[in-house]
User: Which sequence fits this backbone?
């Protein structure tokens, strides 16, 4: 397989674009429960349907499209496999997707609708700015900075949170 001379992120995204259904098995344990739902986000932005383990990070944003008893949940955005039916449901859900392209299209559409706005870069930037502003407003009025100066050794200074950038420049720390 020859790889094009593109950025690896472009290539990575291109691979996603070639996948119809992403299989995301994950063992239910403490380590895996600390992982992020990045695969879900990548799938939504690349218009890829998801079949995932019903555990940890995949319970954050995914809604099972198949309810107990086999009824289709029209708001579902993935197929979730419970660990107690692990091998049986994986086979059943893969077969269902192969035989029902409309279900796959519904999963893709719902996943994009649920995820793309929530994890849009501009939306996230707005959230980060609001959190930083809240921190600045609620931050202590003075921060003590300890530093090493090659001429005088250790030093400290106190500065207002809002002026920290200017103070760091003034003391030659940046």
Assistant:
């Amino acid at each position: 397989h020859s790889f094009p001379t593109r950025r690896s992120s472009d290539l990575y995204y291109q691979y996603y674009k070639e996948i119809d259904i992403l299989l995301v098995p994950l063992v239910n344990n403490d380590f895996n429960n600390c992982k992020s739902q990045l695969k879900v986000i990548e799938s939504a932005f690349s218009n890829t349907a998801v079949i995932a383990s019903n555990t940890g990070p995949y319970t954050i944003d995914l809604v099972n499209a198949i309810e107990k008893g086999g009824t289709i949940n029209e708001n579902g955005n993935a197929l979730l496999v419970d660990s107690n039916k692990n091998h049986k449901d994986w086979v059943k859900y893969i077969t269902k997707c192969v035989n029902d392209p409309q279900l796959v299209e519904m999963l893709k559409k719902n996943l994009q609708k649920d995820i793309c706005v929530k994890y849009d870069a501009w939306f996230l930037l707005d959230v980060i700015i609001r959190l930083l502003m809240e921190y600045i407003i609620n931050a202590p009025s003075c921060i003590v900075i300890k530093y090493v100066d090659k001429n005088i050794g250790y030093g400290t200074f106190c500065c207002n949170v809002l002026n920290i950038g200017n103070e760091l420049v003034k003391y030659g720390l940046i």
Summary: The chain has a mean pLDDT of 81. The helical segments are 8-17, 30-33, 38-45, 58-61, 86-99, 101-115, 121-138, 164-170. Residues 121-138 form the longest helix (18 residues).
